[in-house]
Amino acid sequence: MFKLKLHWQILIALVLGVIFGTVLQSTQGDEVKNNGFVSFMEFIGSTVFIGLLKMVIVPLIFSSIVAGIAGRDKGKGFGRLGIKTLGYYISTSAIAIIIGLSVVNFMEPGLIDGKPNPELVDFMKDNADEFNEKGASIERSAVSVENDQDLFSVIGSLVERMIPDNVIKAASDNGSMLALIFVSLLTAFGLLALEGEAKDQLVGLIQGLNDLMIKITGYIMKLAPLGVFGLMGWTIAQTGPAFLLSMGKYVVAVISALLIHFVIVLPVLLFLVGKINPIKHFIAMKEALLTSFSTASSSATLPVTLKCLQENAGVSKRVSSFVLPLGATVNMDGTALYECIAVLFIAQVMGISLEFSSQFTIVVLALLTSIGVAGVPSASLVAIVIILQNVVVQDARLDGAFAAIGAIYAVDRILDMCRTSVNVYSDACGAVIIASTEGEDLKVKLEDSTKTGSMTLT
To answer: Backbone phi, then psi, for 164, in 5-degree steps?
Structure first.
């Protein structure tokens, strides 16, 4: 009997969610917020599906890292692996920011004929009050994490987040991925130092736990079409597709920059550095990409990304369990790119001309804040506030910049979905590139590219 593949089910569910959400929003308008079916879609998508994915993150990451390291006879090579991983993350984030800077200067989404777009100025004034509460919350978060956001403070913040006071509490808290990675690494290298029956029993138990978590992730993914339908339907019903039109040029600028990084930069790195077939790798990651787009959460997508990399791309647990959790925490190509465009867009709408030195400062701050505030709610918007405070803090129109963030927030959801997909795909590309340089026999290697002509999207 014909059975539709999961990724097609997810794609169909995504399209149906957009259609249902559009119909509900167009027929009921603001009253859609009180619609019981819309509330049910939010429950299915956010509470059930994302909740189940988040449920397996801690045991899956812990068991993957420990099993991947302690399951080997020796722990050698992880220093080299760490250097490669950090080198990749810093390089791709820097490239993404430069792309964002180039696109926003070329397209000038906040200007018309060299002057601030009057429609955008009016839009920001008219809608600023609607987002006051959210904007105030974002500003308070930014103030709490800014504290001279330089290199040393970022490093200090990372170390503080890495060492938990309470291991159990850190495992249960959102945004404590670094602490989980640190504890997992300590456990893994501690097991490597053990000898005898105790080591074998513990390693066997953790490897069994890892196999169990992967199996449970597979069960959860069977609910993905329903969850994606709920998430997309709820999102579009709340905002409506027309909300993109009011800031269309800004949205196009962000998505164009993200596409350049996604379609050109990352495939070129796959091809030249990793000797990976970009088409085969994209197909291998299709479920993770669809999940990341619908959930707008790198962390929630992490179990799916691990599953796709290990089963579809052939990346070992040793590499994937080290590279991916770290990437979901510190590698934010799409977010860094977005921050750069958003800040310059706000400056353009406010009529502020930023010299090269100021734009260079934005590049550095975007790179640092994409890492430094990754564990903060609304992290990208918090980072935008931090950059604004550092770049235009002496400008009398700073309050206007904060009001502009309210307008950006109006279109943030769809852009969040796009940049999360770029974040996840960059992590996945990094994992296969590093695995290739480590000599692993991958299913997506370039040597098999002659077969791609007969490949089917299965």
So the answer is: -85, 145
